[in-house]
Fold:
Amino acid sequence: MKKKAEWPRRLRSQEWYGGTSRDVIYHRGWMKNQGYPHDLFDGRPVIGILNTWSDMTPCNGHLRELAEKVKAGVWEAGGFPLEVPVFSASENTFRPTAMMYRNLAALAVEEAIRGQPMDGCVLMVGCDKTTPSLLMGAASVDLPAIVVTGGPMLNGYFRGERVGSGTHLWKFSEMVKAGEMTQAEFLEAEASMSRSSGTCNTMGTASTMASMAEALGMALSGNAAIPAVDSRRKVMAQLTGRRIVQMVKDDLKPSEVMTKEAFENAIRTNAAIGGSTNAVIHLLAVAGRVGVDLTLDDWDRCGRDVPTVVNLMPSGKYLMEEFFYAGGLPVVLKRLGEAGLLHKDALTVSGETMWDEVKDVVNWNEDVILPAEKALTQSGGIVVLRGNLAPKGAVLKPSAASPHLLTHRGRAVVFEDIDDYKAKINDDALDIDETCVMVMKNCGPKGYPGMAEVGNMGLPPKVLKKGITDMVRISDARMSGTAYGTVVLHTSPEAAVGGPLAVVRNGDMIELDVPNRRLHLDIPEEELARRLTEWKPHHDLPTSGYAWLHQQHVQGADTGADLDFLKGCRGSAVGKDSH
Structure:
């Protein structure tokens, strides 16, 4: 257990607010124009509430109200709360993709913390990129930090059927193409998909990353699953506000919580909940910021033998609301601990160990959180595939895949990029059937740019009309955590930098062998080498702005797609005064 720091002591914020010098009066005096009494600057912890609220980030649209509860908790514990808006990237609205701006958001958050008089911070997050970006930024500065998420939406219902946000969007869209649903019915269903504040109500990336924050020990126990509109979400926010003040007094930092053991706990948790493949790329990036050596091999090693026991869409049938009522993530963590799959002594932001937090919880619904013998899949971890088509790795989510396709050999049908796919996929003249392997290129970190969630390519209507609902799909893209199917993602190196994916041609045979973790392009080695030598990039490169910076410096998906000049670098939390 961490030894607590001496208290009272002079805090970082006193570099701005403590004393009578001209510089201090400059900082403190201007703050007083908001009506703050002089004694608030007396050395008590100043807490930055980093809020990703935005009208254009609908998942986080209620975080202003929630921030007031965080403030109440800070005040109660004797701290001084100051709310700070930070970059908010919504997957729902940002083009070309919010993933392109995750690193920009992380950089902005890092400098917002470093450059301002905060002694600790509350990370208010929701939509899936806001969680990793704020964790990355906070890890880079390494001041006391704690996560509170906005929580998932309530269940959706359409004609008596549960509707999972995202998951049913993909399902209903395919039904329209197959002639099984009318466009008017699709529009009618739209109203039932998002019927309250909050993030996706499936085990999509937002709920997955909320679970990852809790499994890492960076959020209070039970935070991940409380619905956005449940009063207990407000209670969690207020308790988080209280806790961050004590964390500052104890000097409990992210680097002491997010250890290698904590990341291994998170990887196993992701397998147990049937979490998003996006967790791979985000946790690799967070680990890089905190200086933990985490690799794709750790994902396969830690997750391979963990059963998926959370029966939620897109892998199962329930939604986050039922998961919360069943006991939420603490029940899953207890299961892992009982199975010997949890580092029980991992420290959490509560100051207690992970096991102390979860050992006494109860599972209230064993149809939602299943016994291991009834697991959705006995090997639920993210599969890491390698071979001549993915020398640096690719990933697949087995709990969302079709078992009969996990070993498959088929003829490649190639789309050079997303525009090529959109131009061809609905054409009945396309030479494709259900035995083929759909391949899409140039959708990785550099290629899209930003690595959009387009890897779960919709099937061609001519196949859907035969009653086929899944095919093997391969790309260097990501897919939404709400999506499903036998989809190989994050293929590295990506096509835009001349990886083997770039030279796949129509008619090539591709072998997928998930049990043996193999992804193979079935052409002679000499032919592959010749094609790679002759390859030339065909996509336009940005010439200015953040897009240029991203293109020049983004790394591959296999290491987290962070910017190369930021990974593994923690700097001083105190800057120079310019006055």
Q: What stands out?
A: Residues 144 and 252 are 6 Å apart (CA to CA). The mean pLDDT is 95.
